[in-house]
From TrEMBL, chain A:
Chain's role: GTPase activator for the Rho-type GTPases by converting them to an inactive GDP-bound state. Has strong activity toward RHOA, and weaker activity toward RAC1 and CDC42. May act as a specific effector of RAP2A to regulate Rho. In concert with RASIP1, suppresses RhoA signaling and dampens ROCK and MYH9 activities in endothelial cells and plays an essential role in blood vessel tubulogenesis.
GO MF terms, alphabetically ordered: GTPase activator activity; zinc ion binding
GO biological process: regulation of small GTPase mediated signal transduction; signal transduction
SMART domains: C1, RhoGAP
Entry protein name: Rho GTPase-activating protein 29
Record organism: Trichechus manatus latirostris
Bias type Basic and acidic residues, positions: 1137-1148
Domain F-BAR residues, every copy: 192-462
Keywords: Coiled coil, GTPase activation, Metal-binding, Phosphoprotein, Zinc, Zinc-finger
Gene designation per UniProt: ARHGAP29
Compositionally biased tracts (Low complexity): 542-560
Residue stretches making up the Phorbol-ester/DAG-type domain: 613-658
From TrEMBL, chain B:
A molecular-function term among this protein's GO annotations: GTP binding
Family: Belongs to the small GTPase superfamily. Ras family.
Organism, scientific name: Trichechus manatus latirostris (Florida manatee)
Reaction(s) catalysed (UniProt annotation): GTP + H2O = GDP + phosphate + H(+)
Gene Ontology biological process terms from the UniProt entry: Rap protein signal transduction
Identification of the protein by name: Ras-related protein Rap-2
Gene assigned in the entry: RAP2A
Membrane topology of this protein: Lipid-anchor
GO cellular component assignments: recycling endosome membrane
Length: 1265, 183
């Protein structure tokens, strides 16, 4: 009680002594930190107060237990509780932890132990427990002292030593165990003794019964715990088994993986032990633990109740007899009294008799007699009562004995019951723990053996096995890699120490997968090198999929993105690291770079994965941040190896991996000639394609709507910038799959010229149409399955054609296309999951891969029809990718060697085609001319309609020339002489073959210089009547076309021509401006012209001639080509068109064109109402005419009105236009004035595009409605 | 009978075609083919006045985005569809609306914002509140539909007709709308 009060007061002091405790224990750092931290924390104080209160309560309980009923058990339990509380207090508040307190507690325990409970009775109780009380007081006092000193802040200096918790708690364990032991020692009475002890107690039976009751309650708790636990375990084992099974099947599929058998074993043993565990659990639930214990408990309950009942009965009986005894006693006394009365009255009567003597003796005698009788009766009654009383007493005696006996019996029974129950409990508990132990032991053994065998694994072993198993060539490559890697790693890391070098040597020759394994094993294997490698494991784990895909792709012979990293020799000097795989293999040698030490203060958590690969130091001078592109002055870091500079805050977002050498500058990637990127690569495939494709294959092949669903705009933009910024070194794993797809699509879309070059566009579309035709035919035939199994003959034919076509592509284009299509094929292979079949992908990649020259780009609905063709061809390429791209990649060397290669290819491509397709082409041409508003189309239309000149070939030639120009741009210098030779040869051919026309040209050609075009033009219309010209040209068309194509092809290759063209374009633009009316007319013409049919064209000749005359200025260019002679007719037709005619025709045109419409429309007839432009015919009209009209109407100056737009779009439109129109037109006989019309459309187009956007076109629409 | 030109816009794979086909034919198309452009026509009665809907189902894929100007120019009412299981498609819808405004040069173009795939409630990424907020900002109706379970599909097209009716009346003399209004 005193202690309690003390504590209360102390508690108050705690709250009051806030400041005092502030200077607690300045000497002891640790303590100070604890106390200063804790003291000021009100929560801590609250907790402390609570704990102290609890402790004082426990002390009080103990005292109470001792004072009231000094049962040994109760006291021991209380003591135990007290000690537990004390221990927890000391654990929680270590400052209270002192030797003195422990001593006091030990003293108390000893004192309690010393009490001999058998001797305890009311008299000696106080004496016996005096010592116990005093020790309790001591404990309380000590505790109070320590608390005070702690709160006063002098604990640290005190002699009371703070003990480490562990020791302290241990000693306490001893204490409490000791106390329990002592009690059990004392409790080890023989059963009789036990009973005797209990018998002495009055309510011993109740006590025993209550014990039994508690026991059953306790057992109930135990059983429910065990049951719940077992259920949980059962559930978890079930899950473990499921997991293990699944993992096992998955693992089984991957061959040559390190420690595979080990893990299989582990999984097996996992499954096995789980099964075993299930059995154990079942056993425990059944006969081993739960059931017996429950049974015992129930029995116990039953018996306890019975005994209780019995005991009650006995007690009742006892009570009854006792009351009977009391009654008898009462009766006895009553009778005694009566007898006394009777006796006294008789004596009185006798005295009266003596006194009276004489008198009425008779009466007196009678009375005497009476009295005597009464006395005797009373006496008798007394005796009876006495008898009864005696009987009662004996009864009570008996009853008491009986009760005693019953009590003894009951106690014995209860004891036996408890004993039995304990026995059962003990047995099941032993069962429980033994079984658990067995389980654990077997598991431990298993684990031990697994651990041992894991230690035996030689890293790299499986990899070498794997390499052995694959073919020898592969092996060579790998070896090559290894060596290269080896030297590389040595260089980069510059490791001196032998052991690390060894590590380096060992590292490179294993795949990152293995390395990872080793990393995970390294916990077992000690050694500095392994610890180091462990740190990489953390970085490399994300790439594990990459590793596995690499191994997978090795199996297939075809090119896969994964393959590239393996097959291509690494070129460390160029710093091209094409994927994260590389990074992994490279990284290990320089472990420290990623370590926290080199990062200094930069927290790892704030850095992206890519940022972790760098070795940052503080920035020395202000530079531009590589990530956000703003200036870094403060807070900047720089990588020691690649000199990447970045804001510290940008490290979070950095996606560029360290290349371990100076990071190259930013490149232009998007919207830039593909070859500029491709030439950096040995195989001509732009890195972006490889990175994206391999990433997609690694993780997103099964993602629904891959390549269809759009990506996040911001992320996509960021990735685009990052790719331009860091090239191969970009870690794209942080981006979502859709973003990556989006980037790839954007790249392809933004290429100035797609993989399938413009010059092949027409052929591609033709092919697609053919394909459509074939497909339709097949569908209508429905010839059954045999057709589907094998590609039909037609399909095969198209296959061959497409192969030929693609072979015309430069090597890098071909390779890139090959790569992309093979990748798409892989996507299609997972069409079931991702829902992207080849048709879908064709639609998406169609416009990316095959598109017309951008002059046609001003978006009109006419391109809609093209889309389906583009899509169809790409679909076809994907479907038959294996057949089309059967070979390996072409060598990228486009240098001298390829010119030889390319040229023949071109010939092949061109020459056979005419043989195959003229029939098919012819009907298509007019349509095409309608579709295209581009210049080339104008040419086509011209040539076809009017002179039936080799339009397609012409176009082709332009394309080809275009491509060649590009080649030239790309350091492909054609041997000129050779080229010219071939060209002249071709010329000869040409001259010979076209029968009616060529002679004419020939004559001209021989004499004509560059400028003679003009004269030629003049001559033409004049010399040839329109009709005749037409007629004459008609039969010629086919031959001429082919010849033309060949020729122009040839001549275009010469750089001289190119130069001329280039020079001309700008100059021509200016005169055009002056040209005013004429040009506008011509422009409208150009537009108009596309829709015109043959007759329309013919009529233009005369005006054109007139026009020619009016134009006098000529540009003298050194005409070096006879070739030009072939095409004269073409250019002159272009510009010369009478505007009125056009206007007239416009209305009539729409009808003939109508039949050609987009195939996908469901209800085409309605287009006219709503979507006029939709049908290709009308659409062309809509688009082409619309622009034409305003321009015709507007004064010349205004045509050029939106100069911004023109200039802006010129790069797109003009350059192709220049390439297209000029080369042909110029050399032939276009004068300066001629050119404007040619160029104009190109310039105008973008403007028109704008106009479409910004001008009201509504007035146009009514026209069509 | 009035004709209404409706253009369905939205990014790839959000279910534009599914919605349209569900409305026109009453069936749900299972196939997952990207659309280039499809045109449908259906007569319906809205507020007891028969009307002809000409629905242009467009390409969502970015490759064909260049066509959008044209679609917009020719359309009168626009259904902007996003997939409520794809947050990005919701983001994509905003520039499309801007484009409509830019091309039409007119703020009050009849537009409906539609969150499709409401049957996939469990995978929802765009909460209704977000859609509603955006619609409020634009001052246009908002609906959550499901082409698969035909939830609110007919209502959607009826609503766009109403919108077009509404837009046509007060602004008849607006030069911009002369093209949109059919005499």
């Amino acid at each position: 009680m005193i202690a309690h009060k003390q504590k209360k007061s102390k508690k108050k002091r705690v709250l009051a002594s806030g400041q005092v405790s502030a200077d607690v224990t300045t000497s002891e750092m640790g303590l100070k930190s604890i106390s200063s931290n804790s003291i000021f924390d009100p929560d801590y104080i609250k907790e402390l107060v609570n704990d102290i209160r609890k402790f004082s309560h426990m002390l009080l309980y103990l005292k109470e237990a001792i004072l009231s009923d000094c049962f040994k058990e109760v006291i021991h339990i209380r003591l135990d509780e007290l000690l537990r509380v004390l221990k927890s207090v000391m654990n929680k508040h270590q400052n209270l932890n002192s030797v003195d307190l422990q001593n006091a507690a030990e003293m108390l325990i000893a004192k309690v132990k010393a009490v001999n409970f058998t001797e305890v009775n009311e008299e000696n109780k106080n004496d016996l427990f005096r010592e116990v009380f005093s020790s309790i007081e001591t404990l309380a006092f000590t505790f109070g002292n320590i608390l005070t000193s702690f709160l006063m802040g002098d604990v640290g200096n005190d002699s009371l030593l703070r003990l480490p918790v562990s020791r302290d708690s241990k000693s306490f364990e001893n204490i409490s165990v000791g106390s329990v032991d002592s009690s059990s020692e004392k409790g080890n009475f023989s059963p009789i003794e036990l009973d005797n002890v209990l018998l002495k107690n009055t309510d011993s039976v109740e006590l025993a019964l209550s014990y039994a009751k508690t026991w059953s309650k306790y057992t109930k708790n135990i059983v429910s715990w065990v049951e719940k636990k077992l259920n949980l375990e059962l559930e978890s084992t079930r899950n473990i088994i499921k997991l293990a099974e699944a993992t096992r099947t998955n693992i089984g599929l991957q061959e040559f993986m390190p420690l595979q058998s080990l893990f299989t074993n582990a999984l097996l043993s996992d499954i096995e032990s789980s099964h075993l565990l299930q059995q154990t659990i079942a056993a425990l639930q059944a006969n081993k633990f739960v059931q017996p214990l429950l049974g015992r408990k129930n029995e116990m309950e039953k018996q306890r109740k019975e005994i209780k009942e019995l005991w009650k009965q006995e007690q009742n009986k006892m009570l009854e007899t006792e009351t009977a005894l009391k009654k008898a006693k009462l009766l006895c006394t009553q009778r005694q009294d009566e007898y006394e009365k009777a006796k006294s009255s008789m004596f009185r009567a006798e005295e009266e008799h003596l006194c009276s003597s004489g008198g009425s003796v008779k009466n007196i005698n009678k009375q005497l007699e009476k009295k005597r009788k009464l006395e005797e009766e009373a006496l008798q009654k007394v005796e009876e009562a006495n008898e009864l009383y005696k009987v009662c007493v004996t009864n009570v005696e008996e009853r008491r004995n009986d009760l005693e006996n019953t009590k003894r019996e009951i106690l014995a029974q209860l004891r036996k019951l408890v004993f039995q129950c304990d026995l059962t409990l003990k047995a099941v508990t032993v069962n429980l723990f033994q079984m658990q132990h067995l389980q654990a032991a077997s598991l431990a053994n298993n684990l031990q053996s697994l651990c041992d065998s894991a230690k035996l694994y030689d890293p790299g072993q499986e990899y070498s096995e794997f390499v052995k198993a694959t073919n020898s060539t592969e092996e060579e490559k790998v070896d090559g890699n290894v060596n290269k890697q080896l030297t590389n790693s040595c260089q980069t890391s510059g490791y001196g120490p032998a052991d690390s070098l060894e590590d380096v040597v060992r590292l490179p020759d294993r795949s990152n997968k293995i390395e990872e394994d080793r990393c995970s094993n390294s916990a077992d294997i000690t050694g500095p090198s392994f610890i180091r490698s462990w740190t990489f494991g953390m970085f490399s784990d994300s790439e594990s999929t990459g590793g596995s895909s690499e191994s997978r792709s090795l199996d297939s012979e075809s090119i896969s993105p994964g393959d590239f990293h393996r097959k291509l020799p690494r070129t460390p000097s160029s710093g091209t690291m094409s994927s994260a795989d590389d990074l992994d293999e490279r990284e290990p040698p320089s472990p420290s770079e990623a370590g926290p030490s080199s990062l200094g203060t930069f927290k790892k958590t704030l850095m992206s994965k890519a940022a972790l690969t760098h070795k940052f130091r503080k920035l020395r001078s202000p530079t531009k941040c590589r990530d956000c592109e703003s200036i870094v002055v403060f807070q900047g870091v720089e990588c020691e190896e690649c000199l990447l500079v970045c804001h510290r805050k940008c490290l979070e977002n950095l996606v560029i991996i360290c290349g371990h050498q100076k990071l190259l500058g930013k490149i232009n990637l998007f919207g830039v000639e593909f070859i500029q990127v491709a030439k950096r690569e040995p195989d001509g495939i732009p890195f972006i394609l490889k990175i994206c494709a391999s990433e997609i294959e690694n993780r997103a092949l099964c993602l629904q709507g891959i390549y269809r669903v759009s990506g996040n705009k911001i992320k996509t933009e960021k990735l685009c910038q990052a790719l331009e910024n860091g090239m191969h070194l970009v870690d794209i794993s942080e981006f979502s799959s859709h973003d990556i797809c989006e980037v790839l699509k954007a790249y392809l879309r933004q290429l100035p010229e797609p993989f399938i070059l413009f010059r092949l566009y027409k052929e591609c579309i033709d092919l697609a149409k053919e394909l459509q035709h074939v497909n339709e035919e097949q569908e209508t035939k429905k010839n059954g399955p045999e057709d589907k199994k094998w590609p039909s003959i037609e399909i095969n034919r198209i296959l061959l054609k497409s192969k030929d076509l693609l072979r015309q592509l430069p090597a890098s284009n071909f390779n890139s296309l090959h790569y992309l299509i093979v990748h798409l094929k892989r996507v299609v292979d997972h069409a079931e999951e991702n829902k992207m079949n080849s048709k879908n992908l064709g639609l998406i990649f169609g416009p990316c891969l095959i598109r017309p020259r951008p002059t046609a780009a001003p978006v009109t609905i006419s391109s809609l029809a093209e889309y389906s063709h583009q899509a169809r061809l790409v679909e076809f390429l994907i479907t038959y990718s294996q057949k089309i791209f059967d070979g390996s990649l072409q060598p990228q060397d486009v240098g001298v060697s390829s010119t030889g290669v390319v040229a023949p290819q071109v010939d092949q491509g061109c020459l056979p085609k005419p043989v195959l397709s003229p029939e098919e082409r012819d009907p298509e041409h007019p349509m095409k001319s309608l579709f295209f508003s581009s210049k080339e189309d104008i040419h086509t239309a011209d040539s076809e309609s009017k002179v039936l000149e080799p339009a397609t070939s012409f176009e082709e030639s332009e394309h080809r020339q275009n491509a060649l120009e590009k080649c030239i741009g790309n350091k492909v210098r054609l041997p000129l002489d050779q080229e010219l030779e071939t060209a002249s040869q071709k010329m000869d051919d040409v001259c010979k073959s076209p029968k009616p026309l060529t002679p004419k040209f020939d004559g001209e050609a021989s004499t004509v210089e560059r400028h003679t075009r003009r004269t030629k033009v003049m001559v033409r219309p004049v010399s040839l009547p329109v009709d005749r010209l037409l007629l004459a040209s008609l039969p010629n068309e086919r031959n001429g076309r082919h010849m033309g194509s060949v020729n122009s092809d040839r001549f275009c290759k010469s750089p001289a021509v190119e130069g001329v063209n280039r020079k001309d374009t700008p100059t021509t633009v200016c005169p055009k401006l002056d040209g005013g009316d004429l040009q506008t007319l011509q422009r409208t013409w150009d537009k108009q012209y596309e829709q015109n049919d043959l007759t329309a064209n013919t009529s233009r000749i005369i005006p054109s001639a007139l026009q020619e005359k009016g134009v006098t200025t000529t540009v003298r260019t050194s005409g070096d080509h006879l070739v030009s002679a072939i095409e004269p007719n073409k250019p002159y037709t272009d510009p010369v068109r009478p505007p009125r005619e056009v206007l007239e025709r416009r209305s009539s045109d729409s009808t003939p064109l109508a039949p050609v419409r987009a195939p996908r429309t469901l209800q085409p007839q309605h287009w006219t109402t709503f979507y006029k432009p939709r049908t290709p015919g009308s659409s062309v009209k809509g688009n082409v005419e619309r622009p034409a009209k305003p321009s015709a109407a507007v004064p010349p100056g205004t045509t050029h009105a939106p100069p911004g737009h023109v200039v802006k779009s010129l790069p797109d439109s003009e350059s192709p236009a220049a390439c297209l129109g000029q080369p042909v037109g110029k050399p032939n006989n276009n004068s300066e004035e001629r050119d404007p019309p040619d160029v104009n459309p190109a310039c105008q187009r973008p403007r028109l595009k704008r106009m479409q956007q910004f001008e009201d076109l509504e007035d146009e629409i009514p026209q069509f409605v | 009978m009035r004709e209404y030109k409706v253009v369905v816009l939205g990014s790839g794979g959000v279910g534009k075609s599914a919605l349209t086909v569900q409305f026109v034919t009453g069936t749900f198309i299972e196939k997952y083919d990207p659309t280039i452009e499809d045109f449908y026509r259906k007569e319906i009665e809205v507020d007891s006045s028969p009307s002809v809907l000409e629905i242009l189902d467009t390409a969502g894929t970015e490759q064909f985005a260049s066509m959008r100007d044209l679609y917009i120019k020719n359309g009168q009412g626009f259904i902007l569809v996003y997939s409520l299981v794809n947050q990005q498609s919701f983001q994509d819808i905003k520039p499309m609306r801007d484009q409509i405004i830019r091309v039409k040069r007119y703020e009050k173009v009849p537009v409906i914002l539609v969150g499709n795939k409401v049957d996939l409630e469990g995978e929802r990424e765009v909460p209704s509140s977000e859609g509603r907020a955006l619609a409020e900002e634009w001052g246009c109706p908002f609906m959550e539909t499901s082409a698969k379970s035909k939830t609110m599909v007919d209502e959607l097209f009826a609503e766009i007709v109403r919108q077009m009716n509404y837009a046509a009346q007060p602004d008849k003399d607006d030069p911009c709308c002369s093209a949109c209004n059919i005499q």
